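INFO  loader      accepted 1 record
INFO  loader      residues=625
INFO  predictor   begin
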Amino acid sequence: MSNFKGGWVGKILRVDLSSEKIKEQELSKDLAYEWIGGRGWAIKILWDELEPGTDPLGPDNKLIIATGPLTGTIVPSSGKVVVAAKSPLTGGYGDGNIGSHLGHMLKMSGYDAVIIEGRAKKPVYLWITPNGVEIKDASHLWGLSTFETEIALRRDHGNDIGSVIIGPAGENLVKFSVVITEYGRAGGRPGIGAVFGSKKLKAVVAHGWEDIPMADIDKAFSLSYEARRQLMSNPGYRKWIEQGTMMTIEWSQEASVLPTYNFTEGVFDYFMNIGGETMANKYKMLRKGCFSCMMPCGNLSVARFGKFERTWAELDYENVGMLGSNIGVGSMDEVIKLNRLADELGTDTISLGSVIAFAIDLYQRGIISTKQTDGLELKWGDIDTILTLIDKIVKREGFGKILAEGVKKAAERIGGEAPKYAIHVKGLEVSAYDCHAAPAMALSYGTSPIGAHHKDAWVISWEVKYGREKVDMTKVEKVIEFQRIRGGLFEFLTVCRLPWIELGLGLDYYVKLFNAITGLEQSLDNFFFIADKIYTLIRSFWVREFGGWSREYDYPPRKWFEVPLSKGPLAGMKLSKEIYDRLLDLYYDARGWDKSGIPKKSTLEKFGLTDVAEKLEKVGVKLQD
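INFO  predictor   done
INFO  writer      dumping tokens
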């Protein structure tokens, strides 16, 4: 019997793959009320339970799969789950959310979260139902693609399951491998798939049927119906249904922020070939959404021409930008093939597009030659060579073994001028927005809690309207506001942000729904306080794992500072280091962090994190008062 009126089901599942011990623990009210769920639980557990310096690919690292109090309920777009661990790609905190049936199936099996540690002796997968939990043999699944694995799991356990799965990339410990579900949904950019692989864990699968409690079900239904009606009556709803995030290709081209040729330019000559209009009119076959979604963003598209005819994949802006314009591919048929391959292999599409572009950029600039590339002549848009390179990366063969480490470590290995062209922050490859002329978005990337990712503060659209050239506190406040909402509230509740950001569903709906479902009385201001506390603890985790901090860790790629755009309406523009430093100072001050980016002791105390201050000082970090 749960101690909660609703929202949380009241139990955490713990699995030690080394000893094969499985146990349950009660979800404490402190963890639920103070950290809410999702990302909040993930960072709290990793901070409390990981020893400083834990090897991300060692048995002591912990995989966290966490839901939130709204996950799996009638709330619009509540089919989300957070996967987290110490990142093998960055060495810091790593997580990702993923649209899946796993979240509600996990809760309907009786668990709010799963904590997995240890390392199995042979490949296994986790099977979770209300009737029990099993560590099952996955030897027959090891080596299969994510699609093949999902088909096999559905054949064995039925179609009514939720799962997250790794492919060959995760098995081979590619540092930017992800988990995949439902034939194309991905999560865990900072190498969560590699953590699965290091533990010999092929998949986590759940099938549940128990009710998720709601304190005031009538009010929750009424609020959810009202929210859905508001969303569907929005003037932008029809275009969203037609294109989803793919409409951003045309917007990014117009705004000169479309990543092109390894972020050398912000415009692409063939953008129309890979844009949202082309996709919707020529390639899109079906819409696909997550559990409880009525604004599906998945564009199931089928290649129509050439040797990849009839290949299908799920498209969105990020993966088309990074596996299209950023590597010089201007054919939608080829983009579909590349996305399908990435999803089958279990690699992050953003990072994969980045490492390929990085390699081509170095080759074209004469920094590397065929001697380093195993004889491959690397050219923009050369699909056959790109496919060969992907095969080498996933198998960790030759030059591919270097690229499988991600652009930061690959650049360090190659040396010379290579780091100048490595597009990352803290080791995580930048997602698909060029920031030569977007300092606030560069700040968003620089201060993202997992490395360079747009999810936490997609501020670039606002910045283009507000004024790229402005340098003021308003920009910093907007970045922090978005981090509180996108990287805070939506990550701990744990639901999709798209109804809010794309179609304007008010944040007050989420507060009212939380109160109706849990029976508590929360406010938006208190949610923002919790979001700031989560960000502060995540930053403390990075500081602890890095043995201190330098503000240079929060800098965007050197290329934006040093190599100006040469095409389009913003030709000649580059990011000013002086302006960026000014924004970063304002950001640190607003966060209550010192000039290096370390939380001050008073800030930690404000959030009730006195023990965190003590642990940081114990490992030699000097904290300002």
